[in-house]
Batch of 2 targets.
Target 1
Amino acid sequence: MISMNKKMTIRKFPDLEAISHHAAGIFSILSEEGISATGRFVVALAGGNTPQRFYAILGSDRYRDRIRWKEVHFFWGDERFVPHNHKDSNYLPVYESFLSRIPINHGNIHPVETGTNSPAISSEIYEREMRNFFQLKENEIPRFDLIILGIGKDGHTASLFPGDKVLGEETHLTAPVITVGTLHSRITITLPVINNARNVLFLVSGEEKASILKRVIDGPNLSLPASLVCPRNGRLTFIVDEKAGSLLQQR
Ligand code: 6PG
């Protein structure tokens, strides 16, 4: 374990399999803590490839009776503006390998509604859903118990991309991210939401992430959105494999 400062912990494991099992263990512990303290455990999930094995482990028999699923609520940190049955949907793989396999009520699953006319409308609906769920007053920010994130090779996280104006968002909980070309437009939660979480867990795997992970850990850099994640009053943990963590100094 490498502790960088009070607010950041980095845990290194041999490979993606080990990361995924460790993250599932953390999920189990945090869910019990959260449910014992507040009666529920509210999570925002990530898209991308890295967390898929973690989701499958949580959906396996091993965790079926270990977690009080009926008290767990799932949101998404970001979603592509595609139907839920589209191959690029962030909802689809999570539902197939995880949520459809656990004893959870349908009402505990809060996907981004993508069957609307525009990402902006989907974003508005999602923000309203979050506000209602957390029973927020105007200007209040939700406090997620756990937000799972990944890091893109360009330093993006959730759908917060380098240079995007969404990075300066201070009041909205969610925002549309409009893209041109072949990339799908997206809906993302914003930095104020991420930085108000009780726990933020980055899962990072593979050699191609080594250099960006080092830069993200090295410190806040406006051109690397993942480096702007710094929960004010929460725990920030990086769970990385040997390859992704190969450039990190043991401190
Ligand atoms: C998404 C994301 C995104 C992802 C990173 C890392 O919808 O794609 O939520 O921020 O976490 O791009 O993705 P990989 O795990 O596939 O490298």
Target 2
Amino acid sequence: MTHKIIIDTDPGIDDAMAIFYAALHPEIDIVGMTGVFGNVTADIATRNAIVLAERCKQTIPVAKGANTPLVMAPNGVSDYVHGVEGFGTMAAQPITGKPLDEPAHEFICRMINENPGEITLCPIGPLTNIARALQHDPSIAAKTKAVFIMGGGLDLGNVTDFAEANIWNDPHAADIVFAANWPITMVGLDVTTQVQCTPADFERLAKSTPVLGGFLNEAVQFYFDFYASHYGERGCHMHDPSAIIAITDPQYFTIETHALEVIVDGARIGQTTRSADPSRPKHKVPMGVDAEGVKQRFLSMIETGF
Ligand code: BDR
Ligand code: CA
């Protein structure tokens, strides 16, 4: 079965891992990417999505999306985690293609309407573009095959004790997305923090696949520096690739179902919680993971590259 996916992204070092995995997977067809602010600005995210597609030698339509949250003032980009240009200490990478003229939310709606029941959305950044798409055309909810989100967490935060970065960067958008009646799998910190990789993993990739693995190995050093200073260990969580792997390999995950809502103000802003509101749809929430299985799946997929 081929999964037609649109990746909504803020590349971002782990975004690059996710996009390379998806590009190499024989059963994934990346039919579009959309850039959103988060780790970097929307302009840099959009350019970096094109950088990653071109490095994979794929022609993928890329649309630029939101540079600010729906309601609140921006928190500011996470350049201290991903680097000023998004890929660690690497300078801005040149591109030959250019973004579509169509804004991201309109591109998402058009693609879903042209392919009803076939498109899987994979947001791995703040959910602003996805919420804007729902606001632009609420009918897309019933026509989307699935939505696999990297974001949130029921019992964990990373930017605060309560909130995960993608949700914290636009909690109002995230709440709109979780309130919609479409089949969401929220791949959150509950599982992504269990999937950890080491410098040796990326050295292996740099040797076996210099173009793709070498790029990741260079970019990830800055991410490792952040983890070393923040968590005291040189390694990193594989947030965004875990969300894509959940599409193709659900067997690695133990899944619960919960109605979800997002706290949009106060000390717990950006927290994803179980909702008691009976009008809210239930979504899939992986709470357990075969972490070694997911990591090896990622590494072996990148090793099919070049
Ligand atoms: C998420 O936030 C971003 O920094 C990462 O790319 C990932 O999407 C993890 O909290
Ligand atoms: Ca991301």
